[in-house]
Automatic annotation (TrEMBL):
PROSITE patterns xref list: 4FE4S_MOW_BIS_MGD
Coiled coil: none
Biased composition (Gly residues): 326-335
Designated name of the protein: Molybdopterin oxidoreductase
One GO MF term attached to the UniProt entry: molybdopterin cofactor binding
Pfam families the UniProt entry points to: Molybdop_Fe4S4, Molybdopterin, Molydop_binding
Chain spans, region Disordered: 326-349
Gene Ontology CC entries for this record: membrane
Keywords recorded for this protein, A-Z: 4Fe-4S, Iron, Iron-sulfur, Metal-binding
Gene Ontology biological-process entries: respiratory electron transport chain
Length: 699
């Protein structure tokens, strides 16, 4: 491997986008990275790469790149120096009660920034209100795993184990578009004679490769799992993975989910249920992988729980090649949910509610344990509280690496809330839609301008290495957080002499936590990546984690009875489901600006449904829900269910104008991105869209 310094022609680092975290060599010319080469020793991608990764450098010196702080003056964002920007922070935040300030982070932040952001919120700002956009991604799967086995490490095994499955159920996981390098594993399974089902309301590239496709109604994946458990019980296939709490209740509950009921609720045939059930019963190593399809619901935790229960009760959970696991989405979606930017969490996947955990971290941070705030608002609740008077409301918000104006549920309402704040401070490197309405924008660092670590979808920690310094007056994000602490007069604990000092503190902070990285160092990671826990410098890493005894008080798992109901629709309403496109990423701040990643927003509708509504391909259609309306051209999509409409969420003033900002999963606090009742209207017959007031351009 090349030496990773600023002066060598190549630098080994990781992709800024999805949770595969492909490793790249960046080739430098005259000090700037100019080319990406995938590396054959990447533990997941094995030298493959997708177009997003190959094009990732295009944004590096984008004309809109933020290179100086911008302060809103006279309604316009105006370039200012750092001294003036930090004086604004001092005056703005220093005069507010801590509980009136919120922090909104990101699953794209490195582990070190995740750690520092949580520390900054709780020690420098002293606010309880910090959460992040990963709440919109993995939260339901994470909640189900945590309450069942006490921890969540995504796959829980090396990706190379995937091909040892003889039956793969991809539940709401369109990996061909969202995690393309995983397609080589699907091929591997089929080459070995295995079977793959794609369970998705849309036919996708993934379902074509899988060869077997079931298209249940959106919001009914968990009921399908209950139907399978019902059959496994009837057929004598219950062989629990290990003793566990709650098994009898879960099995009794499954008695109600006979194939006729499940077929009706899911919009499938009884034969579909029996065929899938037989395949599962006969498989030696059935593996269930969930994506955002079953997770991004207001009953997402219980939906995942239903699949997890099935894997556990049939003896496959934790088995090599089999079991259950979620597929993480965001680049550092795994590490981002472990190290303290969640509202109830401390580093190392510790709980802010646990007295021992609080004491451990308080000692490291040299503050009294009682000074650490209690858990605050979760992500959507935090955004809903912005600009609200009275108890629980927020007057100021710091956003880093996230764009809730596009990505939050009920984006129209959220945008109004953010505009009602007295202070909206955004740290970013491109003028996202959220940055454009900020009162202060601080220019931060891009992926190849910073050191750190990320944790991929298999819980593997890898180094991200700096190849170039940020342009102009832009600063590395970790330095900005330290600068903010100093501006607030609370520099103690934020005076790291260099990045390595912060990184070493981060690794130390995880010692004794469930997500223990304390045996890691940059030097060790230069030799090899490692899957956590890694508890000592000389000790091994842990490729497989989902095995008893589990990280629960008595070492036993606890299965929970899923409380699921099939969604109902009013006459003429359809199911609106939102999702991703292959060459876009999240809110599109980077990828919509990237000329190599052309894409356009459309509304995917089955041709029969379009005909019933008087719509043809390319016609503008207005989608209306109880929460808003949005208009886009029709794309006729024969592979979609007739009762379902699909729209991607990468564009502003679009998909998330239609989603509900208030209904949340009771366990994961996830909004319902995947099922919203919607009606279709030819745009020429509808009233004009209520437009957002125009956004002030970034100077
Ligand atoms: S987006 Fe994901 S699959 Fe594509 S190059 Fe980046 S890490 Fe790899």
């Amino acid at each position: 491997m090349s030496q990773a310094t600023l002066h060598t022609p190549t630098v080994r680092t990781t992709c800024p986008y999805c949770a595969v975290q492909c490793t790249f060599d960046l080739h430098l010319e005259r000090g700037l990275p100019v080319k990406v080469t995938p590396t054959k020793d990447c533990p997941v991608a094995h030298g493959t790469v997708c177009k997003k990764g190959l094009a990732a450098l295009n944004d590096l010196r984008h004309p809109e790149r933020l290179t100086t702080p911008l302060l809103r003056k006279g309604g316009e964002l105006t370039p200012v120096g750092w001294d003036e920007a930090l004086a604004y922070v001092r005056d703005a935040l220093g005069s507010l009660p801590p509980e009136r300030i919120g922090v909104f982070g990101s699953g794209s932040l490195t582990n070190e920034k995740t750690y520092l952001l949580g520390k900054f919120a709780r020690v420098a700002l002293r606010t309880p209100h910090i959460d992040y956009n990963g709440r919109y991604c993995m939260a339901s799967a994470s909640a189900a795993l945590n309450r069942t086995v006490g921890y969540d490490r995504g796959l829980g095994f090396p990706a190379d184990d995937l091909i040892r499955s003889d039956l793969l159920l991809l539940v709401g996981a369109n990996v061909a578009e969202t995690l393309p390098p995983l397609m080589q594993y699907l091929k591997g399974i089929k080459d070995r004679g295995g079977t793959i089902y794609a369970i998705d309301p849309r036919a996708t590239t993934t379902s074509k490769v899988a060869g077997r496709h079931l298209a249940p109604r959106p919001g009914t994946d968990g009921i399908l799992a209950l139907g399978l458990l019902h059959l496994m019980k009837q057929w004598g296939r219950i062989r629990p993975t290990a003793p566990a709490h709650g098994m009898a209740q879960v099995l009794a509950h499954a008695d109600d989910y006979h194939p006729a009921r499940v077929a009706h609720d899911c919009g499938l045939t009884e034969e579909d249920i029996f065929t899938l059930g037989r395949a599962y019963a006969e498989s030696r190593t059935p593996l269930i992988l969930t994506g955002r399809g079953p997770e991004q619901h207001t009953q997402g935790t219980d939906t995942v729980q239903a699949w997890l229960n099935l894997a556990f009760l049939t003896g496959h959970f934790g088995k090599v090649g089999g079991g259950y696991a979620p597929l993480t989405g965001q680049g550092n979606g795994q590490g981002g949910r472990e190290h303290g930017q969640k509202n109830d969490q401390l580093p190392g996947a510790r709980s802010l509610r646990d007295h021992r955990h609080r004491a451990e971290i308080a000692a490291l941070w040299n503050v009294p344990a009682e000074a650490l705030p209690q858990p605050g608002h979760s992500a959507q609740e935090l955004l809903n509280a912005c600009g609200q008077p009275g108890e629980g409301g927020l007057d100021a918000l710091i956003v880093i690496g996230s764009n809730p104006v596009v990505s939050a549920a009920g984006a129209g309402q959220v945008t109004q809330n953010l505009k009602a704040l007295r202070h909206l401070i955004v740290i970013d490197f491109l003028p996202s839609e959220t940055a454009q309405i900020a009162t202060l924008v601080l220019p931060g660092s891009m992926w190849c301008e910073e050191d750190g670590t990320t944790t991929n979808l298999e819980g593997r920690v890898q180094r991200r290495r700096r190849a170039v310094t940020p342009p102009g007056a832009a600063r590395e994000d970790w330095r900005i957080l330290c600068d903010l602490a100093a501006a607030l007069g609370r520099p103690h604990g934020f005076t790291y002499p260099d990045f390595r000092a912060l990184q070493d503190e981060f690794f130390r902070a995880t010692r004794g936590g469930k997500a223990d990285y304390s045996g890691l160092s940059a030097d060790r990671l230069d030799r090899a990546s490692a899957q956590w826990p890694v508890t000592s410098a000389a000790g091994p890493d842990t490729p497989h984690v989902y095995a008893p005894p589990f990280l629960t008080p008595d070492g036993l798992a606890t299965l929970h009875v899923p409380q699921l109901r099939a969604p109902t629709l009013a006459p003429r309403a359809l199911h609106l489901t939102t999702g991703r496109l292959g060459n876009q990423y999240q809110s599109g701040t980077q990828t919509r600006r990237n000329p190599a990643l052309k894409a356009e927003q459309t509304v995917q509708i089955h041709p029969d449904t379009a005909r019933e509504h008087g719509l043809n391909a390319g016609d503008l259609v207005t989608l209306r829900t109880a929460h808003g309306q949005a208009t886009a051209p029709v794309a006729l999509t024969p592979g979609l269910r007739r009762d379902t409409v699909f729209i991607s969420f990468h564009w502003p003033d679009s998909a998330n104008l239609l989603t509900d900002p208030h209904a949340l999963d009771p366990h994961s606090r996830m909004p319902g991105f995947k099922t919203t009742p919607v009606t279709l209207h030819p745009a020429h017959l509808t009233l004009p869209l209520p437009t957002r007031p125009s956004l002030s351009p970034v100077s």
